[in-house]
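Revision sheet: structure tokens.
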Amino acid sequence: MGSLEGLIRTCKYSFAPNSLGYCGAKDFSVLFERFIKEPSKQAACKVKEALRSFVGLHSYLSLIAEHNSLSEFDESVIEAYWLGNSLLKNVPVKAVRELIEKKFVTLPLYIRQQKACFLKQHAYVQHSFHVLFIQFLTPKVAPLVSNLDKCIIKWADVLEVKEDKLKVKSIALIHENNELKLKEKLFNVENRFIEEPKKGMLISVHWNNAVEEISEEQQKNLKKCLLANIELANAYTTSIQKK
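Predicted:
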């Protein structure tokens, strides 16, 4: 499938939040699911058009692509955003600050300026950066810890396969002693995309949906970005509370 693999991946990660009405201009779940099952170059044009209506997603893909001389839907750019990879190192913090101030206009100006000014060093603009530091651009979903927990991309070990559900050992985002932290957790997730799940398989999870099998290297990158962005979010909260 070559160049279509990246689009398939982003359709899988975008499916759940879009079907819930949180991301995208309208419900593209039927389009995404059809493309995942039967990808084609003709359908890819419609998928790209749909993904451009995801303000946060498309903004980050464009940012990562620009600073790595790649196209916005390049497979490595898409991997960088959802799971993290070496491309993130090439995105300068100045560009991230500009993105926050100019693109995320549904947030009040003073909030955009406050968050942009807080960024002094490198930022890992993997998905968890947006979830934990920027948080949601739509009023349809409240920035509660339970929602942030569902929205971050998690790694998980499959413990049991139960028809269209998987029992997994994964992580949960919690708020403890005025800080965001991670703890291990066992729970069930929906499985619509992994065709032959097996006990011991390492997978990714988004909005309680199993997304794809991932490698140990991808897990390592995902964990690195998530921990860095938890630290960033905690530092920002502390700075606000001191004012």
